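User: If only I could read backbone structure tokens as easily as an amino acid sequence. Those tokens are not coordinates but codes from a learned vocabulary of shapes. Could you go through the record with me and say what the backbone is doing? Here is the record:
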Amino acid sequence: MISRSLRLMLLSGAAIAATGTAHAQSASTATTAGTEVANTATVTYTVNGASQTTTSNTAKFVVDRKVDFTVITDQTGATQVNLSQQAAVTKFKVTNHTNGIQDFWLDPDQTTLSVGILTGTDDFDISSMKVYVDSNNNGVYDVDVDTQTYIDELAPEASVAVFIVGNIPATVGIHEAQVSLHVIAAAGGTSGTKGALLVATDLNLGNADNVVDIVFADDDSDGTLNLGDVARNGQGRAYAAYVIGTQNVALTVTKSALILSDGVNTLNPKALPGATVQYCLLVHNGTALTGANGVALTDIVPSNTTYVPGSISVGLPGGTCVLAGTTEDDDADDAAETDGYTANYNSGTQTVTANVGTVAGLGSVAVAFKVTIN
């Protein structure tokens, strides 16, 4: 027990110094949630020239979780697509600004968009819409590789690409589909497991020193002019669009006739009765990057001529018409066809039909058949 005289000495003549120690936060790295911060004060003093020391109790608290992240569209403009295109992709980026590892739930949608978020008019629906995370971090959607449907264990200040993938309908006249990526913060900490959605701590309650409180600090990632998200709710949205890039292609067909033989002249055959004539139909797609699908050609054998059986050929243009191609049979039974082309001759209507499938952008296909002059 300190005597009355010692108390007076402490009050009037003792030299007293107090010091404390605490963890310092880096200017570039936030302290990880759950980190314990401990602080103990030390008092030194002298009594009659004798140095004395005493320490306080240790004050402790744990750093709370400041949940913050951003969701942005990570592409330039809309995704240009074609009718009937499968697995069309829009790309987004999610960045974790939380002071801890986070999982994120991903929700792609099209029906909850607010009017005016994107320019243009949403006039068709994406079918089979899915969302996938960039598993190999190459920034490109890889089928059978990018299969994860939620963000797992995203480190602080790390980013990851997310893809919305869907199919474009074949409806002629459609123009644009607007989609949204909805991201929701979830608990991290267990790799390979989809964490539970985070629930914010009631900010009306006092801080619990030994409990990691959860505080949503995310800003409205849509910006002040757009709807669909509010600040500090642990959720974010970003928006993108699919736009039908080309409604039509510059598909042309050029027809020519070549006298192959006339039975009289060898070098320069003429269009004599009995002569064989080759008709050539050259199809060309003058539009880059967009194919013309389901291309079918029909040609009626002209009067005063007779179709030469088995003379239809289809393939790449060159030579007199078809340089590298195959000869097609005349019947309409195409079950045995394996070259991608089908053709037939209808003797009743005297019509040659050739189905050449898809003519790629800037590509060409040639179709030839023969007749004899009556």
User: Anything to note?
Assistant: The longest strand covers residues 50-62. Residues 1-28 have pLDDT under 50 and may be disordered. Helices lie at 4-12.
